[in-house]
């Protein structure tokens, strides 16, 4: 099952600031979702995290609409602060 991927505006803005190699690694990992180093976040019903090196991608998955929403992309130390 192939999911549609929707990025939040802040995520695209953050991705553009990163160097090219890191951008490619993160985008390739996101395109592989829901596979990869994915764990469910505690306390949130539909939120998951994808690990890409030192970066974390927080996303939610909607199986009904076959949609993955990328909520936040940030280094490991910053991503869980909301």
UniProtKB/TrEMBL annotation:
Keywords from the named record: Toxin-antitoxin system
PANTHER family xref list: PTHR38813, TOXIN RELE1-RELATED (PTHR38813:SF1)
Protein name (Swiss-Prot/TrEMBL): Plasmid stabilization system protein
Species: Desulfosporosinus acididurans
């Amino acid at each position: 099952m192939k999911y549609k991927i929707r990025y939040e505006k802040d995520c695209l803005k953050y991705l553009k600031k990163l160097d090219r190699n890191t951008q490619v690694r993160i985008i390739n990992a996101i395109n592989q979702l829901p596979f990869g180093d994915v764990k469910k976040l505690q306390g949130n019903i539909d939120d998951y995290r994808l690990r890409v090196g030192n970066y974390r991608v927080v996303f939610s998955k909607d199986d009904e609409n076959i949609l993955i929403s990328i909520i936040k992309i940030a280094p490991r130390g910053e991503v869980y602060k909301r």
